[in-house]
């Protein structure tokens, strides 16, 4: 039996966390959702020496405050499920801000290993990090890595094992100093918490105290109904007021400043940088891609490429799948005896799931495009360029791509909203997406416009599209004021440096999302196809269709009699009369 | 606060491309303030205005060596001293 180590991967967005996760687990990963929330959960298993490592990829987060669902998910996992080791992936070229999460992990008192990722980029920028020194100062081992090349990952795994076995001497829990005044208040709150033995056994009392002073809503609710809860919160209130009277600023601000102060100190002592104010490649690329005049045309060119790539390149494989489904139906048709089960397989299963399966090429291609846009760092720029327009209708710049894809097909477009981090923005974008007229509706529009507005058919079709967009804007506003009341998400969006994505990572990224679609097809879509088939097939005898058949028989009989009579006339006229009667009969039907 | 200092006290929204400012204080409260603080917008930190979006909003800033974008309404809540 191999020993199992549970490892949680934590890190900022754009820290290369996903790349490392993919490098370590390869294709052996399981994608799902965290229970109860629409946040992607990725897990993978692999063997290293004598160990079986269970790797859980936590959502990319900047902090462990209960600011977003992602942060709550990550925090709860660490607090409640207590992984053996937490690996914090840190972007070494953006050390200060990335270490903020690290400091919070240190405060949580977890067994931590730092991965100083993209160390090559940091070196190129002129940051020379003494990782041993940094690790020593933070009280956690730090391993330099280059995720895209797989460098340092073996050392990282060795370190994980060492920490798990308690053989790492660099790992020591050091309290992050928060300043004399704050420390005094922490102690006071801590004393009250320690009276509740259940609470202080489960969580670190110091950590709870800091979180309470920071006015962390999630923790306050946890404490409120526990033993001595009111006493603890009373002390918190007193301490917060005391801190505010001294600093003339709320405690969360002071605590954040202290944490950054601690980081500053550690970074200054462990790194030195040689080059200064060098214009990076990213700056040069941005000069063109985000140019005031060129920015929009280039953006629309990319969108056009994405659109064409998804729907034009996706066309032929779509037809292949369609003919495959037809072929399967045909096989069933020939080889199965007439029965309800046969009808279910052909109309329910193959008709329902097959009808959705044909979108798979579209979805894979769209996600390939989106993965490239995301992994290179252009997606954030697209949101930056489009935000002014989208914000006017109450959305985020990132909503633009899912909405524009809706004109091609709403199915992949709605799936593309997975790129939106904010849940409210995501649901809002999904809700108004069907108002973007997809390409499958165009033939229907053409038919109706041609039938009812012969002269103005073109204008009518154009106006249907425009009305859809206007309706989307109006519905967006209504939803925002009713279903999604409250604080809207601030647009504090990082613009990461441009990066060349690895092919492996991009394809895994694409497949992850495409496979979610496939899973849905095996599950919910299959079930609903069968339900819809059931509603159509039953009742088998009687009902409207039964009456309809009766009517048909009656008509047939009436006309047969008439035709018989006409034949009896045996005149020249009779053939003409018979012809007319047959025509009349068909019309009546 | 002296009159001279008042004149230099601006919000981040007032700064133009290429300008640099030192953060004095974040106005506002709740999640928004907390998020800005955690992203490194703390008192004493230097911010540089990198560029405006083609439609003027949002604006790209550089702080703590990384790039971040804020809308005007958000930048208006950050008090800075121009340097």
Provide a short characterization of the protein structure.
The complex is a heterodimer of chains A (589) and B (83). Helices cover 64% and strands 9% of the residues of chain A. Chain A is built from 26 helices and ten strands.
Give an account of the 3D structure:
The complex is a heterodimer of chains A (589) and B (83). By secondary structure, chain A is α/β, with parallel strands linked by helices. Chain A folds into four domains: 3-164, P-loop containing nucleotide triphosphate hydrolases (Rossmann fold); 180-273, Helix Hairpins, CATH 1.10.287.1770; 295-534, no CATH class; 543-588. Chain A has helices at 17-25, 69-81, 95-108, 119-125, 131-138, 153-164, 180-194, 197-202, 205-213, 217-224, 229-247, 251-270, 281-289, 295-311, 315-335, 340-357, 360-376, 378-392, 400-405, 410-415, 423-432, 442-452, 457-482, 503-537, 543-569, 572-588, and strands at residues 3-11, 29-33, 40-48, 51-57, 85-91, 112-117, 127-129, 142-144, 271-273, 493-494. Chain A has a seven-stranded mixed sheet, sandwiched between helices. A two-stranded antiparallel ribbon of chain A has the order 7-9. In chain A, strand 5, helix 3 and strand 6 form a beta-alpha-beta unit. In chain A, helix 15 packs antiparallel against helix 16. Chain A is elongated. Chain B is α+β, with helices and mostly antiparallel strands and 83 residues long. Chain B has one domain: Ferrous iron transport protein A (FeoA) (SH3 type barrels, Roll). Helices cover 23% and strands 39% of the residues of chain B. Chain B has helices at 3-8, 30-38, 72-75, and strands at 9-11, 20-26, 46-52, 59-63, 66-70, 78-82. Chain B has a six-stranded antiparallel sheet with strand order 1-6-2-3-4-5. In chain B, strand 4 and strand 5 form a beta hairpin. The longest helix of chain B has 9 residues, at 30-38. Chain B is globular, with a radius of gyration of 12 Å. Chain B starts with a helix and ends with a strand. The chains are: A alpha/beta (589), B alpha+beta (83). The A-B interface holds A 62-63, 65, 67, 93-97, 100, 249-250, 252-253, 256-257, 260, 286, 290-293, 295-296, 380, 384-385, 387-389, 391, 397, 487, 490-497 and B 25-26, 29-40, 42-43, 51-58, 60, 64-71, 74. Strand 10 (493-494) of chain A pairs antiparallel with strand 5 of chain B.
